Amino acid sequence: MTGIFADGGFFIYIVTLLGIVTLTLNVVQLVRRDKNFMALIVGLISATFFLGLCGTGAGLYMAAQAFEVIPSEEAIPDRFVKIAENPAIYVGMAMGIAATTTAMGSFWAALNSIVAGIAQSLRS
């Protein structure tokens, strides 16, 4: 689980926090069976997914910047020369940030949408 947060970068914490808050509001709405939080829940679901996409953009930007950060052979020990010769490793690490943040944002948005749908069906 800590690997997800390490790969996800800064946005993963915000996405997770918004997802947990939205899930809590969904459960409160489900227990109370009222519509007081519906607009807020829809807004938070949208914000969670949007921040997941922002994390993707940040990951793609970091992937583009990774080509400039590749160290030369003289600047690193011999055991890491093979890693430095392969820029795909740096790009892959940055793409991991993008994919992880999008996946987490999509997970929370989907989970909260399912709970909101259950709450809606129980009210009718």
What topology does this entry show?
Elements lengths: L1 H7 L1 H23 L5 H32 L11 H4 L2 H37 L1
Task: Give an overview of the whole structure.
This protein has 124 residues and is mostly helical. The protein has one domain. The protein is built from 5 helices and no strands. The model has no long low-confidence stretch (mean pLDDT 71).
How large is the share of residues in beta strands? under 5%
Average pLDDT confidence is 71
What is the overall shape? elongated
Helix content: over 70%
Poorly predicted ranges: none
Could you name the key traits of this structure?
83% helix
A few lines on this structure:
The chain has 124 residues and is mostly helical.
